[in-house]
Write a structure and sequence with these properties.
single chain; alpha+beta; Cytochrome Bc1 Complex, Chain D, domain 2; two-stranded antiparallel ribbon; 4 strands; about 40% helix; elongated
């Protein structure tokens, strides 16, 4: 006759492990679908690609204790309003260019990447680009010729010339503008956006 208690038996723990694993697999599947739904462009926190046709800026939300994106009036990128398909194509071109040129070797995007060069999550709103009316032009000039238009601010870290085409550079700028409209719960911390009228 066995004297092993039910809660100490190998069979009990084997069955428990199987059931817990199966239950957690179901939870993981549910959470995966829920996360994908929440991070898909066009959701509450991640705007549709057509946001590149709008003015994007940040305002302090005292209740949340952080800066949050505000989608403003119409302000088409490069002066051309794009429909949903064209906006998606331009933002996608920028994303694919950033991946192909391995920008995350030096930069951080949405918390992923390296910290050698500036975080690009909110680069569209970075005060380094000066006033809003010249931001697109300065960004385009920099991406096409970073050696001449370097903005190291004393860090001696300069971006190499990636020999981007103008279409690739415009795509990157569209991607950066779209990414700045994502509500990242205040990431990166202590980011001070470009001054807005009335600030």
């Amino acid at each position: 006759m066995s004297t092993t208690l039910w809660w100490a038996s190998e069979e009990f723990w084997r069955k428990t492990a199987v059931w817990v694993t199966a239950f957690m697999a179901v939870v993981l599947i549910f959470l995966t679908f829920d996360s994908v739904k929440k991070i898909t462009a066009g959701s509450q926190r991640v705007p549709a690609y057509t946001v590149i046709n709008q003015r994007i800026y940040y305002r302090w939300n005292a209740e949340r204790g952080m800066q949050e994106p505000v989608i403003g009036d119409e302000a088409p990128l490069f002066g051309q309003k794009l429909d949903a398909d064209a906006a998606w194509a331009l933002v996608d071109k920028g994303k694919l260019t950033i991946q192909a040129r391995n920008c995350m070797n030096c930069h951080t995007l949405l918390g992923n990447g390296a910290y050698y060069a500036p975080d690009l999550t909110k680069a569209w709103l970075d005060p380094a680009w000066a006033a809003e009316p010249v931001r697109e032009t300065l960004m385009l000039q920099f991406l096409l010729d970073p050696e001449t238009n370097a903005r190291g601010f004393g860090s001696n870290r300069k971006m190499p010339n990636l020999h981007l085409t103008e279409d690739e550079a415009r795509g990157i700028i569209a991607y950066l503008k779209w990414m700045s409209a994502i509500d990242t719960n205040g990431f990166p911390r202590n980011f001070k956006p470009i001054a807005q009228p009335g600030d």
